[in-house]
Automatic annotation (TrEMBL):
Record InterPro entries: Metallo-depent_PP-like, PhoD-like_sf
Biased composition annotated in UniProt, kind: Low complexity: 644-658
Protein source organism: Halomonas salifodinae
Superkingdom field: Bacteria
Name of the protein this chain belongs to: Alkaline phosphatase family protein
Amino acid sequence: MDDQPLPDILAGPLLRRLSPERLVLWLVGSRPLELGLHLHPEGAPPRRLRLGEERLRRIPVGRHAWLHLIEVPLATPLPRGRRIGYDLRLEDRDGTPGIADWAPHLCYDGESRPAFVLAEDQRRLLHGSCRKPHHRGEDGLVCGDDWLAERRDRPEAWPAWLLMTGDQVYADDVAGPMLAAIHALIRRLGLVDEVLEGATVADSQALYAAPSGYYRREALLPDITVNVALRERFFGGARKPVFTSANAHNHLITFAEVMAMYLLMWSPVPWGLIAPSRPALPEELDARYDEEQEVIEAFVAGLPQCARLLAHLPSLMIFDDHDVTDDWNLTAEWEACAYGHPFSRRIIGNALWGYLLCQGWGNDPERMAGLIEQAEALLGETHEREEGLPAPSQDALLEALRGHRDWGFRVPGTPPLLVLDTRTRRWRNERRPGRPSGLMDWEALCELQQALLGSESVVIVSPAPMFGVKLIEGIQKLFVLAGKPLLVDAENWMAHRGAASVMLNIFRHSQTPGNYVILSGDVHYSFVYDIRIRHRRQGPRLWQITSSGIKNGFPEPLLSTFDRLNRWLYAPRSPLNWFTQRRPMHITPRDPDRAEAGERLWNGSGLGLVELDSQGRPARIRQLDARGFEVDFPSPEDREAEADQAAASGRAGPKCSK
């Protein structure tokens, strides 16, 4: 298989930040490509644009892998509300083949090219988080593609954005067969090598050949609790910081591993180029590998549809922890440990570097320009030298990534979108560094308030829910008080008193919006809260809308128990409510229409779909369940109206079942 010629395109195109005046696309080729962009707006003449150096950056990440970052300013704006077909043609190939030739899976049946719609406003949004390939469940992106396919001729029904609100990849939780595919793809594409300072394995090639390379990488990772003999072998016995993921057995380490992971997550093409070798495993791990292999094969079968969705809907993305590593920056103590050792700094930095190139750049190319230039220079130098990454230059880039303070971004529109960075600008607990940090520091929260002033309504993307399940947050607080915040992922807005207080005061400010829609993920279940400020008749209205995961879930018996206990312990008149920081808020949960009576948490992979009215208030909230049905979260008013109508007609209310 390694002797076969490589296809020109390995992954993409992905539609990213689109507007009538500018188009941003991402793809990966096996060589530097000469591309032409052809646009076919409905009801208007086609346009042909050659992508020269000012519109196309080609960045090598290996001998046969080139990132193509496409940013096209348009002197004549494109129309809104219409279907716009597009094609990327290979101008340096005979016949200038287009997408239908080199990626037919990106076209819907009977169509010769993919398309996009520039929505009139930002009132219809598709959103979700947490896509783990080896979770035994359906892929929400496949579900999203099925949903869009039914509406492909109705541009008015298309969402303005696909918002991916965290954990687009799991760098810290990788299945054995996925890691084998990653290593096979690294070899096939000749992805860059690197030196590994701080580990007794000298470089990336030695890492890939290490006996502990599969299911035992926690022995390679910086960790103060591993077996002493293994610590001696790989780290010279030095005390190391802790990587806290319970599933770090195959944690990604090198930049090449991270880049290969993205290609395998977003495109079916790389899977057809490799024949992964099964690693030599102890007998007790063979069965686990086989089980994971079955799930990974099902995941790969859905990738053509996932890629098609990403080629039709513009996407915006923000990291959460698993894009880098579990509990990333959870406490000041964690940061001191993790950034205090060169190997753990490298692991974290490589994952953030992959995020920059594959996710962050497409959100707002201008804000990422300086980092992209630094990465481009480093990778260009490495490609010319035909050697591994020079360690000093790599470390300098990773340090710049760590110090970057502009990962969050704003999308103007009706209503505007504010996407928050809740990972790198944390409110650290200086007196008790082992306690959870606030998700945003005081300066970042002040900037958030300034961005909100004067808006009538706003959509905020916060990877972690601003208003979560009180019982679960209470359990997390107990573990924090016991000095064990890492055991329960104590990552909620209320875990840090200062950050929570400032955030709640922002909502109470008289000049901030009257309507807030907060879109979140992270928790592996979905729910909706209607929120009002107590004792203020004209106060703002808030809606916490959480959709998680795209391909992940919460242990079912445990979630049902938490749901039931939360209803009992935090009922509207419960005195326990006065011991929470949210006591100035009146919170009304919405019941999913397919849930059992009283259940408020929906457990199932899929995507959230929210539709807003002219004032920025939710008109309809749904979960597109990947099992093939929709779940509505009707408002309390809709519930009452339905019950009144049922009573008036002499029939019982609707019976709901899962």
